[in-house]
Design a protein that fits this description.
With 358 residues, this protein is α/β, with parallel strands linked by helices. Helices cover 43% and strands 16% of the residues. It has two domains: 197 residues, Rossmann fold, CATH 3.40.50.2300; 123 residues, 3-Layer(aba) Sandwich (Rossmann fold), CATH 3.40.50.
């Protein structure tokens, strides 16, 4: 478990930086705080408020905005941030809202640290748009890249098969891996598209066994992977099944087979320092969903503001070049504003939980 940074030196620095009138040091927080996505927005807000309380940051230095997860809401929230004189914004979990907000925030020179938006174009267009956005969430294509990088390395000497459920997600996941495997000189011994949401996959498992597969990558959802594991066991077929982060979805009546592999994201609460988790417990707030990502994004924003004020560098320069220690580990952004390290990891299901494969 990572250790938290000493609080007293941090508070001393913060007090010095925030000695000027509060408006000049205001941090904006934008999230959907109404309608159907209110639950997710409140998770983010809870994380930010706990991070602020831990650092004794007064509410006068925070300005909240509701983007309603819509383009119009994003524009209105951005205008409110500009009118409120915020220096930096934390938040956004919806693509439509942040894309509408960024032109306004760019014009005002206000950078955004977002823990929630995965859309590739958000940062891919940075050279053209100049949007000052820094993404702590993974990119939409990070999962495919991680599946390829991790499993190609793991399956160098395996007889592997590829199956997908015919969806765009399933096909892209499997095809990305296939191309990477071919570049490494590896070929699958079996490729197929299966019919999803069936009561059984006995036929597919029988074909995989006849082909001689020992491992299979599935581009599909948790329910189908669970049925495949069950049916392979009924056939006495020792098969290692791997899939993507769809395996994090809510379990149904059929459990995953022990040994199932997942390339997915760690649960933020599993990696957070004990001091951070205790802060949530003391306030009787569950550290789930966007809570800890919101906490960590706020940490980045506050530390960037402190470094800018104490070093004379611009906020953009600090965010573009520095590394930040957070509740989610070290954070550093590349020249597009994406994370420099892919956060996906390989996990193995132990019959109850997903455990990191070192």
């Amino acid at each position: 478990m990572r250790m938290s940074l000493p609080l007293v030196p941090f508070l001393t620095l913060f007090a010095a930086v925030f000695a000027a009138p509060a408006k000049a040091q205001t941090i904006g927080i934008v999230a959907p705080l109404s309608e159907s996505v209110e639950l997710l927005g409140n998770q983010l807000r809870n994380g930010v408020e706990i991070a602020a309380a831990e650092r004794r940051i007064a509410s006068a230095n925070l300005r909240f905005g509701d983007d309603s997860c819509t383009a119009e809401g994003g524009r209105q929230a951005a205008e409110a941030m500009v009118a409120g004189g915020v220096r930096i914004v934390v938040g956004f979990i919806c693509t439509e809202a942040i894309e509408a907000a960024l032109p306004i925030l760019k014009q005002a020179g206000i950078p955004v640290v977002t823990p929630g938006v995965r859309t590739n174009s958000l940062t891919d267009q940075r050279q053209r748009t100049g949007w000052p956005v820094y993404r702590m969430a993974p990119r939409a294509d990070d999962e495919r890249e991680a599946v390829s990088d991790i499993l190609v390395d793991q399956w160098q000497d395996k007889l592997f098969a590829l199956v997908d459920d015919g969806t765009i997600y399933g096909r892209e996941l499997v095809e990305s891996f296939r191309l990477s495997a071919e570049l490494a000189g590896l070929q699958p011994i079996f490729i197929d598209t299966y019919r999803p949401q069936m009561d059984n996959q006995i036929g597919l498992m029988a074909r995989l066994r006849r082909a001689g597969a020992s491992h299979v990558l599935v581009g599909g959802d948790r329910a189908d992977v669970a049925i495949m594991g069950r049916d392979a066991a009924e056939l006495g077929f020792d098969l290692v099944i791997a899939a993507g982060e769809t395996l994090r979805s809510v379990p149904d009546d059929i459990p995953l087979a022990t040994g199932t592999l997942m390339v997915g994201l760690p649960e933020p609460a599993d990696d957070a320092p004990e001091a951070v988790l205790e802060a949530f417990r003391q306030r009787e707030v569950i550290a789930e969903g966007y809570a800890i990502p919101g906490f960590a994004a706020f940490e980045v924003a506050v530390e960037a503001l402190i470094r800018s004020e104490t070093s004379g560098r611009t906020l953009a320069d600090v965010l573009n070049t520095d590394t930040f220690e957070t509740a989610m580990g070290p954070i550093k952004f590349d020249d597009k504003g994406d994370l420099t390290q892919n956060p996906y990891r390989l996990f193995r299901y132990d019959g109850a939980n997903f455990v990191v494969v070192e």
